[in-house]
Design goal:
Blueprint (H helix, E strand, L loop, with lengths): L2 E7 L8 E7 L8 H14 L22 E2 L2 E2 L21 E5 L8 E3 L2 E2 L2 H9 L20 H11 L6 H5 L6 H12 L8 H14 L10 H5 L7 H15 L1
Parallel strand pairs: 1-5
Antiparallel strand pairs: 1-2, 3-4, 3-5, 6-7
Length: about 250
């Protein structure tokens, strides 16, 4: 495959940034999107140019590092797929592909396609701790949990914190991410003691970081590589209102 890439290049936070065009030839359809960028970077290094900076780690759709907007869609147009799991066979030979970083005020660009997502860490830290009794491990099944609650908690726990929800939201909202982290614990017995205080603290921190508010457009769940449902936001809002009333 022969491709034309339009890539956002930005040397640092103070740089204005620009789109740069690259031609990439002899791309195998079996390559992942990141492997294709690796090939381009090897060429740039040999030519004495600065390679394109992008985040990556596990390359197995687990860590959530590989965040980039591909042709206007976070992680690309394949549903429930991270960028590292996106393969070049999903593109046409001769295609022009535009690659940009997550664009949101709380995600400042570090370099090229790399953004600072530490705001997510601070939201999680605001959630504090989970109270558990000290002592030996409890017997299996000693704390019954409804299957519906266990399934919903597991669905929320699959969030990998990639930030695609923020990049896709027209408001730059982190509500789906925050709701997933809150809902994961609020549905389980271990999360009940701090349930309301946790919800309020995390939502307040999300607002303090500068993320926008949720208007239920649904773009977040449409691009979420783990398919986290929109109703987790309703669960978060319910807990937040209860906490505010108290």
């Amino acid at each position: 495959m022969n491709l034309t890439l339009r890539v956002w290049r930005q040397s640092g936070p103070s740089d204005a940034g620009r789109m740069v065009t690259y031609k990439v030839e002899d791309v195998s359809p079996d390559m992942s999107f990141l492997e294709m960028l690796d090939v381009l970077n090897e060429r740039l290094i040999l030519e004495g140019d600065d390679p394109i900076a992008f985040d990556h780690d596990c390359r197995e759709g687990i860590c959530g590092m590989c965040g980039m907007v591909i042709n206007g869609v976070a992680h690309g147009e394949q549903r429930a797929t991270t960028t590292c799991q996106l393969h070049m066979r999903h593109f046409e030979d001769g295609a022009e592909i535009t690659i940009e970083p997550w664009r949101a005020a709380p995600f400042p660009v570090v370099k090229d396609l790399v953004v600072d997502r530490s705001a997510f860490d601070r939201i999680i830290q605001a959630g504090g701790f989970v109270s558990v009794p000290a002592g030996s491990a409890p017997d299996a099944h000693s704390i019954p949990v409804r299957k519906e609650d266990a399934d919903a908690a597991f669905d929320a726990a699959t969030c990998i914190g990639c930030g695609a929800c923020v990049a896709a939201c027209p408001n730059g909202s982190a509500s789906l991410f925050t709701a997933a982290k809150i809902t994961h614990l609020s549905l389980l017995p271990q999360g009940q003691p701090e349930r309301l205080s946790r919800a309020k603290a995390m939502v307040d921190q999300m607002d303090a970081e500068g993320f926008g508010g949720c208007t239920n457009t649904g773009e977040c769940t449409a691009v979420c590589p783990k398919g986290i449902p929109l109703d987790t936001i309703a669960q978060m809002n319910s807990d937040y209102l209860k906490a505010s009333a108290k």
